[in-house]
From TrEMBL:
It comes from Ibidorhyncha struthersii. CDD domains: SSP411 (cd02955). This is SPT20 protein. Residues 7-168 form the Spermatogenesis-associated protein 20-like TRX domain. GO terms for biological process: carbohydrate metabolic process. SUPFAM superfamilies: Six-hairpin glycosidases (SSF48208), Thioredoxin-like (SSF52833). Gene3D superfamilies: 1.50.10.10, Glutaredoxin.
Length: 731
């Protein structure tokens, strides 16, 4: 170590990803006015590199090119070099990724883009090897060619960048055409179901052969489809597809059987060999999805997986102040003495390691059986490793095993002459010892940036799990995180959310010198979280804040001409395009989630213009929803919620009364995609009674906790028993 040879301006940043590049020989600038001014003043092109902390190929390109003295000199001489953490600035990432995808037919990270001094893109790609290879031009060659072009043909470059920008503007516009109304929900749902079932893998679950992603948006769509078609064969099929996928994922290597939580995605069809990074947004969405699976099926298996995910997040991704960290890297040092990191090193096992850790003979098993034998059989461990060379192009996992459940507990027990009941305790002990051994290994890098949007997704995960599993501690953890957001990622003076904050050196929470303002997704996921938290805790303060944020979201992002919300504000002159994302991917797109948010907001406030806005968003995306709803499964789901009108489930009762709690437990135990829950506690000065005057007319029948089912503020007859309430909620 000693003193680093180089230090650039990234040393003053807070993002762990940017700080990783602070000692490159490249003279990196953060995205901002200082870099833009330099490019204009010196009439230089900008080289923009966008990545994120757990991105494997980002690290490779840094090692090969950005740490290379000679390449660094070429970059510094010819370009103003800017580094962006895409998780801090999704707006910048999206503008230039739109360009890279449109011009190269593919995209990904690290993203490498060359811009004119006025920020217009004209050339780009993703990862470049440092030197020319047989099929790939090297980074050094590209840098020199582009520098040469700028010298020789500056005017042609500027002209082509202007044309590219105009084409991008046209290409990326999403707006309502004429007087469109929302698309017919029945057709959208049917088409989306058809498209999902056509791409479904019947053997292993999931919706592609390989790579396989845990797509909570698809599973949530299928749950809603089932809830609206319970008695049809298609409804049954939708449920089976979702539950089978969740089971296969939970058995697969994509789940960390020793350290809990889910890795990013599987490189193969069997959910076996993953890319090992763990992202907060996956844990938040999967916790919610597994708790819904438990709600619907009653199968404890799904509750166990939910608890596993939340254990991982509480232990490894939680800041002591209450927020949640963004991610853990895929790569780490195999041992403390290793010189280079390897993907998955923290999580994989050689067979002899497991044998040495689990040598005990097993009582009551076939003669000579050790705990290691049972464990290795159950988790598919092979003497010379269980990873096929096809899944391991860099030979990083040679001779290693990724644990995957290959047998049912009954089969494993029968193989060794055990009672099925004995197996659980043996496997638990095996996992405990492996976990203790793993704690001695160097940990992967932790990205301690805390993002409002992803914290929102995680709060929803804790709140929904707390309600569905009747676990109060999860609801409390969600409330602690919401209080953290309010304290560190919200500016009460302006009423606006901030995008990010960071863990400082002494474990305090820090903010950048110029805080990044919240984007549309920050508002949308936080508002969703606050509604989920209200339903789980019935604390009205969360509702009040959610509705304030919804008003602010309307003001900052709504497009009054073309309808729907822009992803970013109008006020940033460095952004060439204001975009509307049109794909539900690893995370749902903000416009999809906001449709349901708006409908919930209207139910809690009586502001019917929010229902109108929800319809206008569906109208703006109408063409896509009718042709390829599989790209927007969350928005397709929302068309059904819009069409069926949300039902207000009002419980009138004393929050502390046992009869009230019993009614609430009943509501929480039922999956119903078009219900909103509220508690009328009789406090006529409280927030809800002020918002919804009709609550004053609902009373407790015979002094007991009483439930009403209301739609458009007209209510059913009162019921006072959980059985009757269940009947009303599950027609």
């Amino acid at each position: 170590p000693g003193v680093p040879r180089h230090t650039n301006r990234l040393i003053n940043e807070k993002s762990p990803y940017l700080l990783q590049h602070a000692h490159n020989p490249v003279d990196w600038y953060p995205w901002g006015q200082e870099a833009f001014d330099k490019a204009k003043k010196e009439n230089k092109l900008i080289f923009l590199s966008v990545g994120y902390s757990p991105c494997h190929w980002c690290h490779v390109m840094e090692e090969e090119s950005f740490k290379n003295q000679e390449i660094g000199e070429i970059m510094n001489k010819n370009f103003v070099c800017i580094k962006v953490d895409r998780e801090e600035r999704p707006d910048v990432d999206k503008v230039y990724m739109t360009f890279v995808q449109a011009t190269s037919g593919g995209g990904g990270w690290p993203m490498s883009v060359w811009l004119t001094p006025d920020l217009k893109p004209f050339a780009g790609g993703t990862y470049f090897p440092p030197e020319d290879r047989v099929h790939r031009v090297g980074f050094r060659t590209v840098l020199l060619r582009i520098a040469e072009q700028w010298k020789e043909n500056k005017d042609a470059l500027l002209e082509s960048s202007q044309k590219i920008l105009e084409a991008l503007l046209h290409l990326s516009e999403i707006r309502v055409q004429g007087q469109e109304s929302p698309p017919p929900s029945k057709e959208v749902m049917a088409t989306c179901f058809q498209q999902l079932s056509n791409s479904y893998d019947e053997d292993y679950g999931g919706f592609s052969k390989s790579p396989k992603f845990p797509t909570p948006v698809n599973l949530n769509f299928l749950f809603t489809y089932w809830a609206l078609h319970r008695t049809t064969p298609e409804g049954a099929q939708a449920l089976q597809m979702a539950l089978h996928t969740l089971k296969m994922m939970a058995h697969g290597g994509i789940r960390d059987h020793v350290g809990q939580g889910f890795h990013r995605y599987s490189t193969d069809q069997h959910w076996h060999v993953p890319h090992f990074e763990k992202m907060l947004y996956d844990q938040g969405q999967l916790a919610a999805t597994y708790s819904r699976a438990f709600q619907i099926s009653g199968d404890e298996f799904f509750a166990d997986i939910t608890q596993d995910i939340l254990l991982y997040v509480s232990r490894d991704l939680s800041d002591q102040a209450g927020g949640f960290y963004s991610a853990e890297d895929a790569d780490s040092y195999p041992t403390a003495a290793s010189g280079e990191k390897r993907e998955g090193a923290f999580c994989v096992w050689a067979a002899e390691e497991i044998r040495a850790l689990l040598p005990d003979p097993v009582e009551g098993a076939t003669e000579g059986t050790t705990l290691g034998d049972v464990f290795m059989h159950h988790y598919g461990v092979k003497e010379n490793g269980n990873v096929s060379p096809m899944q391991d192009p860099h030979q990083e996992l040679k001779g290693k095993n990724v644990l995957i459940v290959r047998c049912s507990p009954e089969l494993t027990a029968a193989r060794f002459g055990l009672e099925p009941g004995q197996l659980g305790a043996l496997l638990r002990e095996g996992r405990r010892r492996l976990s203790a051994a793993r704690a001695q290994r160097p940990r992967p890098h932790l990205d301690t940036k805390m993002l409002a949007a992803w914290n929102g997704l995680m709060i929803s995960g804790f709140a929904q799990a707390g309600a569905a599993l009747a676990e109060q501690e999860y609801v409390s953890r969600a409330a602690q995180a919401a209080a953290f957001l309010r304290r560190h990622l919200f500016d009460p003076a302006s009423g606006r959310l901030l995008r990010s904050c960071y863990r400082g050196n002494d474990n305090t929470v820090e903010q950048s010198a110029v805080p990044i303002q919240g984007f549309l997704e920050d508002y949308v996921f936080v508002i969703q979280a606050l509604f989920d938290l209200y339903e789980a805790s019935l604390e009205q303060g969360w509702l009040e804040w959610a509705l304030q944020l919804q008003h602010m979201q309307d003001k900052l992002f709504w497009d009054p001409k073309g309808f729907a919300y822009f992803s970013s504000e109008a006020s940033d002159p460095s952004l060439l395009l204001r975009l509307k994302n049109d794909q539900d991917g690893a995370e749902p797109t903000a416009n999809s989630v906001t449709v349901t948010n708006l409908l919930r907001a209207a139910c809690y406030s009586g502001h019917m213009e929010w229902v109108e806005k929800a319809g206008q968003i569906l109208a703006a995306f109408s063409e896509r929803l009718q042709k390829i709803p599989i790209t927007l499964p969350e928005m397709a789901r929302a068309t059904a919620v819009f069409h069926h009108t949300l039902k207000q489930v009002v419980i009138c009762g004393d929050p502390q009364g046992e009869d009230t709690k019993e009614m609430l437990r009943c509501v929480h135990s039922i999956f119903s995609p078009n219900k909103v829950l509220m508690l009328a506690d009789g406090d006529s000065a409280g927030f809800l009674y002020r918002q919804l005057p009709f609550l004053a007319s609902l009373e407790r029948k015979d002094g007991k906790a009483t439930a009403y089912l209301c739609s458009n503020f007209a209510c059913s007859l009162p019921v006072t028993s959980p059985q009757e309430l269940r009947g009303m909620l599950c027609p």
